[in-house]
Amino acid sequence: MAGQFIVDHETAAPGEVPFYLVLDGRCAVTTESATVTLSTGDLLLVSRGEAHQVTAPSGRRFRFSDESGPIFTTRRTVGVKPDLDLFCGHYHFDTAAGELLFRLLPALVHVTPNAAATTLADLLRGEARFAGPGSAAVVSALCDAMLAMGLRSRPEQRLDNPALWTAIGDEALGKVVSGIVERPGDSWTIERMAETASMSRSTFLRRFNTRTGTTAATLLITIRMMVAADLLTNSDRSMARIAADVGYSSESAFSQAFRATVGMPPAQYRKNSVNHE
């Protein structure tokens, strides 16, 4: 695109999370509550899928056209050299685990440029221009890598508020996250988390809250419910077995926690998953 333009995007469909990667140039994304300015290499996730505008506020207005390709549709300004190259798309999820992951993120996740992001932008630009055999698979894999990079980015690389998953970018806190993901049924007390992170209890709590903007208890219950949601969907284990697998000795306590986190009882969630299939 070149010059001044405004592109409106309606609220995303359920299970869709729009993203933008600026391959070259500058633009802005505006929601009802915020405006984020993006520059070359910047990644933006619209985590809640809210309605938004993509704009370039200065310069002349030019006519543009949409060109369909074998993989991508390219919106291109007609008759003038572009000054913005913007890669747009969305992530799709159909599980409670995916919903919980994106719910934990800020409404707008803006990751600043770094060397890895620049390399990724170059790769995506090349595949978008090539658009040949295998490009769809390559681009899909690169977009997955881009999401992982955004979630693990360290606080000094981010322009938004801290979020739970920034703990992954902290080596000590990352050990806690990995441990809970691998063994969600274990007894994860604050003392054990602190010991895993090689910190005192008070230092661990302070560092966790500072780095993520939330609590260790939120981390624990969310990971457990994400694991439970996948077990409900992809296994025939009994409710009592799943409750034990994610650290609950009481099926009723598990059901209460799952409902509070996901919005429905686990039995109803399993039934809906079967019907969806």
UniProtKB/TrEMBL annotation:
Keyword Aminoacyl-tRNA synthetase: no
SMART domains in the cross-refs: HTH_ARAC
GO molecular function, one term: sequence-specific DNA binding
Gene3D superfamilies in the record: Homeodomain-like, Jelly Rolls
Keyword annotations of the record: DNA-binding, Transcription, Transcription regulation
One Pfam match: Cupin_6
Superkingdom per UniProt: Bacteria
Occurrences of domain HTH araC/xylS-type (ranges): 174-272
Protein name: AraC family transcriptional regulator
Gene source species: Amycolatopsis carbonis
